[in-house]
Design a protein that fits this description.
With 235 residues, the protein is an alpha/beta fold. It folds into two domains: 148 residues, P-loop containing nucleotide triphosphate hydrolases (Rossmann fold, 3-Layer(aba) Sandwich); 69 residues, no CATH class. Helices cover 40% and strands 26% of the residues. It contains ten helices and ten strands. It has a six-stranded mixed beta sheet, with helices on both faces. Strands 2-1-4-5 form a four-stranded antiparallel beta sheet, with helices on one face. Helix 3 runs parallel beside helix 6 and helix 4 packs antiparallel against helix 6. The protein is globular, with a radius of gyration of 17 Å. It starts with a strand and ends with a helix. It binds adenosine-5'-diphosphate and magnesium ion (MG). Magnesium ion binds next to helix 1. Adenosine-5'-diphosphate (ADP) binds next to strand 2 and helix 1.
């Protein structure tokens, strides 16, 4: 569904990704793993159109998207949950969710997506009228994911959802994402430094080191490769 081919991205003289290629199957979770500075955030920012590649291509349903605007890419159904959580702190939980669904043209659809968010992440329903800055880290992460989902994306790009979260909260969030993948044929690209937890939910995984793909395989197979784990995954 998503094909990354020979993607090279640079910030001036700094080459952040070099000839990166991999594919993501529809209805799967693909983990992108690697150390700090490996190029993971650059990869998702390039997929969502925020960064322009120097060369290579990104195809979504066989259509080239690497030169489209971020708005056009979002409209095609690719939603990005940025590192550090994309919620508007001064707005209430409900206002954040309504903004997330704004791009849906039908009013009933917009209402339904807010209701779905509450059904999926129960703590958000109880806090619907509170400003987002009053939420815990885990709740804020739920809100940022729910906000992205309110647009009914086909692909969800999650940049380090585990950052700063207790592992129990993370497990709950991952279970919800797994549920969506199954119920809605959602496709997820999950960026993580926490390789162990990511591999436990992912179908496939790509390991990036210094801007290059060093491994791409089924998650359970990568998890069983001791040499790779020690060299790149830190467990
Ligand atoms: N806006 C930027 N300007 C210049 N260099 C950047 C910028 N963003 C990231 N980089 C560099 O690109 C490389 C990859 O960074 P990044 O994609 O953030 O990695 P990761 O998310 O895996 O930690 C790093 O060397 C980083 O310093
Ligand atoms: Mg990053």
């Amino acid at each position: 569904m998503l094909e990354i081919v020979d993607l090279t991205v640079a910030y001036g003289p700094v080459v952040a990704l070099e000839r990166v290629s991999f594919t993501v199957a529809e209805g799967s979770v693909t983990a992108v793993l690697g150390a700090n500075g490996a190029g993971k955030t650059t990869l998702v920012r390039t997929i969502s159109g925020l960064v322009r590649p120097r060369s290579g291509s990104i195809r979504f349903d066989r259509r080239e998207i690497s030169r489209l605007s971020p708005e056009a890419i979002a409209r095609l159904g690719i939603s990005h949950v940025p590192e550090g959580r994309g919620v508007l702190a001064e707005l209430t939980v409900e206002e954040n969710l309504r903004l997330g669904g704004l791009c849906r043209s039908d009013r009933a659809d917009r209402r339904a997506s807010v209701a779905e968010a509450y059904a999926l992440f129960r703590p958000l329903a109880e806090r619907r009228h509170l400003p987002a800055f009053t939420l815990s880290g885990g709740e804020r992460q739920m809100l940022s994911i729910a906000r992205a989902l309110a647009a009914r994306p086909r692909v969800l790009l999650l940049d380090e959802p585990s950052l700063g979260l207790a592992s129990l909260v993370l497990t709950q969030i991952m279970a919800r994402i797994k549920q969506l993948v199954q119920e809605r044929q959602l496709t997820v690209v999950l960026i993580e430094q926490n390789a162990r937890s990511a591999l436990s939910v992912a179908d496939d995984a790509v390991v990036v080191s210094l801007g290059r793909v060093v491994a791409h395989d089924q998650a359970h197979r990568l998890a069983s490769e001791e040499g790779l784990r020690h060299a790149y995954l830190g467990f």
